[in-house]
Amino acid sequence: MVFGDIALNTLVTLLSECQLTLSDLHKINHRNNATSYRFSVQVSDIKQARDRLSAFNIANKIESALLTNAPLLSQPGLLVMDMDSTTIEIECIDEIAKLAGVGEQVAAVTELAMQGELDFAQSLHQRVATLANSPESILADVAKNIPLMAGLETLISELKKHHWRIAVASGGFTYFADHLKELLALDATFANVLEIVDGKLTGKVLGGVVDAQVKADSLQLLGDKYDIPAAQTVAMGDGANDLVMMAAANFGVAFHAKPIVLAQADSSINQQGLDCLLHWLA
Known about the structure:
Layout: E1 2-3, H1 8-17, E2 21-31, E3 34-42, H2 46-60, E4 78-81, H3 92-100, H4 103-114, H5 120-129, H6 137-144, H7 152-161, E5 165-173, H8 174-184, E6 188-197, E7 200-206, H9 212-225, E8 233-237, H10 243-248, E9 251-255, H11 259-262, E10 267-269, H12 277-280
Parallel strand pairs: 4-5, 4-8, 5-6, 8-9, 9-10
Antiparallel strand pairs: 1-3, 2-3, 6-7
Helix pairs in contact: 3-4, 4-5
């Protein structure tokens, strides 16, 4: 799948470097003010081809995808997305930490967790602990200026036209996930609960941590609740904590993601906004 503005010589180089043999033009889609072309190709090693395609896309600043059995846009489906750095442009805990005066310390731990170099639950407790005694008002300060990721509202609007269900499963916090649910009319959100006593953060999380497995379980739970066929499920994220959820879905999409996620995703979006997904769907 390539967009209509790709140069012919770039397409030829792409096919060569990824060892793809083009057989025919399968479909042309006009979606979201863009045209994409779906070609049928032959490939001997799809994992190797996807790795090469991902590197080619990033090096050439283009979007293209090697797809097999992608969900259909025209039929009801389920999309579950990560929140921080996926549906919104920021890492909420990093922004809270800046206001609490521990920004650099927390950001370093966040990066290690997203790269898969630190256990997520451990990293979450470690980061939240640094926020002890911070005023609850800093959460409101972050929420009121929360920047939505490019293409998010368009993606949600178009999917809803085709009766898709849309949810956020986040290792972040309910304070922000619930804000997004109301703002965007999402079907569900899953996130961690910060303990607040007498208007101050205690540095603790209430209940179990929403980790990689809980994210994956949320996708299964919603698929069952809304009777969505497994073939019509999509999960999208950017960090190591999203990999189990992405594997549980029929179609796992890495969005502006870390290398460990790019290496395991079914497809990726590296340059455009979230609405690029509309062209990845069949």
